[in-house]
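Researcher: Last one for today. Full complex below.
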Amino acid sequence: MATATNSSTNGEGTGVGWWRRLRISPKYIPMALLTLVACAFAIGNPNFISPYNINTILVYAAPLLMVALGQMCAILVGGIDLSVGGMISFISCLFVVMVPRIGAWAYLLCLIVGVVLGTINGLVLTRVRIPSFIATLGTGGILASMSMLLAPVPVNVPASHQGLLVVVTGSYLGIDNSLYVGAAVFLLFYVILRFLPQGRQLFYVGSNIRMAWTSGVNEARIRTLAFLLSGLGSALAALALSASQFGSNPYLGTPFVLASIATVVVGGTALTGGAGGPFNTLFGALMMSMLQNGMNVVGVDQYFQQSILGLMIIICVGLTFDRSKTPVIK
Amino acid sequence: MSAPAPLTPALPTLALRGIRKEYPGVVALDQVDLDVYPHEVLGLVGENGAGKSTLMKVMIGLVRPDTGSMALNDEPLVLLDPIQAVEHGIGMVFQEGCLIPNLTILESLFLCHELQFRRRGLLSRRAMREEAQRVLGQLRLQVDVETPVDEASPAVRQMVEIARLLWLSTLYRQQNPILILDEPTTVLNDEERATLFETLQTLKQRASVIFISHRLQEVVENADRIVILKDGRNVAELVGAEAQAARIEELMVGHTFAADRYREHEQYAPGTEVVLEVRGLSKTKAFAPLSFSVRRGEIVSLVGLVGSGKESVCRCINGLERPDAGAVYLGGEPIRAGSPSEAVRRGIGHVPVDRRSEGLALAMSVAENINLLVLDQLKVAGFLAPRLETRNARKWIDGCRIKTPSTRSLCATLSGGNQQKTVIAKWLSSRVKALVLDHPTRGVDVGAKDEIYRILRGLARDGVGMLVMCDTLEEDIGLSNRLLIMKDGRLVKEVDCAPDRKPTPRDVIQHIV
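Model: Here's the assembly. Have a good evening.
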């Protein structure tokens, strides 16, 4: 059935239909790719598949997955959230500053702040009607500077309060808690997108916003919801990151802007919106994390790693992106 | 079908032979022949869906025919894209215009061909301005060439497009360019129209013009030759001077007014209770205040030419446009204007004319499209239940006889007819009280048309009030209980269409034009 996705293009302009002749459904390409890359690294260095290293990969993937799940919601409705970097920096600094003062309530406070900031992004988009690319570029800048004002130098959670971080730093049954948290966040996004009407409406809006509007879907509310979820994802990632590092710095979130977008598209979610889902993003996060880790394990030159990562992003998207929806690739 | 004997003895400039184009589920063109002779105005007429636009797109290289051939001055011609068509002197002025709004007239004229005006490596604005004035002067157009296109009137824009095509044909040294004008008069007022017709006669001296219009009288008065298409086939060719609008109308519609094609025997006598009522609704520049009502189980057809305002009326009812005055009532209760979600929540559905851009999420499954409006009813303990989703989708797929491999197939993979049935199924599952159908059978094949008529008759039996706009007058008459005729933004006439006393298209057409 999934092969039909590509046959709808009248065969024009796809240029990547060759796998159809191989009779492989595009649905399984991500899986195949993940296995292939894992095998390559394992051959390069058998330690790559040691339980210890696999744990390292997963622990690294967890916060990335959280930001990327949020980013995916923004991308699903046809937008993009460039404020995730500033958001993660700001919320993690806020968390570290607040923990000594309000204890465990800092977790709740940070989640609420994430949701509120995400909602503001959504409202700037839908009420002030500024494209999300610009709107979140603006709010992201504001948040980045706010985090520098909040914590001009790297800050740490005082030893007296580090017990509160066990939610992330501890382990249970020999598995790091951060993996449980990551799994729980994945489940949360999965349930929202798969089993709530509002989650389904994200797809309608992203797939055909005019149709959604004429069918009575409150598209402004749904797009705001998407950015709210993105804020929530960033807040969760900020908490996971600052807890695992026992502290924060105002530049913590910066790399996550591009990393989250790369994760989403590597997973196969189209930047044009409407197609993709949590499982795609899970795959993307695992892939990104595995590439980062694998290159270190097999000893790729540090300076060369970015090139390979860039190349892999292009290859992954080339293989997973469904071009049938977009006549013109911008 | 054999090619009609040419009425002009000369060799055709452009000859199309046996052109066939098939889209999923529809044959748009079936063995169509067309000759364009030098120095003539060729009128091309046919109802919506007769294949005129597809044929024109074939001529300008936008659509490649499945079979058939083209020849330009007796030499085989294969067009891969519109640029090649322009190089061969074939160009089209689209109905909606295709100039870039934020460029000036000058820039639009020479767009992508500016290198002609290179002086010492730089573009000479002055040379361009002089050439522009010369080119526009040939069409006797007095206009400041630095005016931005979006500030120019539709008439001026049209002339600019014509001038551009003429200029390009001289650039590519084409002796007898072919200009296709698609419904050029719909955007013009009477005076501008007269100017255009004068221009057409001048143009004839150096070009061939293909003139497409729904206003048959215009075609008769201005075309040297008239070609009539119906259902993607050639039906007749007439000499312009000898033709009569009424005769063309007959040929366009076809002689056989088949009584059973619209399932008329299933036509349901409407109840007395009013479902949908429009009171004093008006919108400036679109339509004057009008009132009408649709009763339970009644199919009311809104009839009129493009520009009669009927589309705008429907959009106001669905909340897609905001009227200036008046209101829409559903079951006697007023509906908040300008809000599609309010209209949907209250039970007014909308089957759009362009199902791909307004009706469906093509990249989503049939089930997801059908269930869009009823997600809240498919929940167990607050969460969507896949089992209920599949059951609801399956029910309406069966009810509307949508041919799909599975509930999870993507809508993009269905044929036009099945896509349309999916749109209707979406509204049926939400139990609408009133449904506005904008050309419900456009671009679907005969079998799917009959299926859609069957569904609409079933809806009427269930008491849904429907307002339709159809592709053909014949369909309007056959399908509906009542016709409301609109002309120039006014409701001019109401015609009863009881099953045994259907008026003929000729009875109705006099009120429309």
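The first strand of chain A starts at residue 155 and ends at 156. Strands of chain A lie at 155-156, 171-172, 175-176, 247-248.
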